[in-house]
Amino acid sequence: MSHPLPALIVVDVQRAFDEWEAAGKRRNNPDAVARIVDLLAAFRASGAPIFHIRHEGTKPNSTFRAECSGYAVKDEAREQAGEPVIVKRVNSAFIGTDLEARLRASDIAALVICGATTNHCVETTTRMAGNLGFDTRLVRDATWTFDRTGPDGDMHSAEDIHAMTLSNLNGEFARIVTTTEVIASLIAMRQ
């Protein structure tokens, strides 16, 4: 029998992103971390499983290298005792880690994904979760991204990138939901 509650997968809520912003990179969804805090509180209150994902950069200039200040988790999203931290070195939380094995061993069938950034590690992890057969939800107001220049030199806003990523994932790989919807669902499952 599968686990009755979904697992929360918190992707890369690390200080490197604060450093990017301090250096002038512009992001969308300034309340995303507050929504992640809300999700963590709700999952903890429900006794639902939580998995924290950390990115460890391997390139010499990565702000996510383990010895850099950017590798550290943001204080608001810090794990509590008993909540596993899984370190990845590529975009997907399923590649080179034991995340899938841990989920299968606990008979977890449903995942709720949040974190950063929408169009990189969150998207890659969400696509793989869907491909692996998990009932996957991506929390639209608990993820964010940054402005980006395309291959032709066109500037794409973080808002547009976020919206397009959600559109690409919706239906085929995941259901796109809000923090409020996830919390309401958890409360309903407890009753």
From TrEMBL:
PANTHER family: ISOCHORISMATASE HYDROLASE, PEROXYUREIDOACRYLATE/UREIDOACRYLATE AMIDOHYDROLASE-RELATED. Keywords: Hydrolase. Signal peptide: none annotated. This is Cysteine hydrolase. Gene3D superfamilies: Isochorismatase-like (3.40.50.850). It holds the Pfam family Isochorismatase. Residues 7-180 form the Isochorismatase-like domain. GO terms for molecular function: hydrolase activity. It comes from the Bacteria. InterPro entries: Isochorismatase-like_dom, Isochorismatase-like_hydrls, Isochorismatase-like_sf.
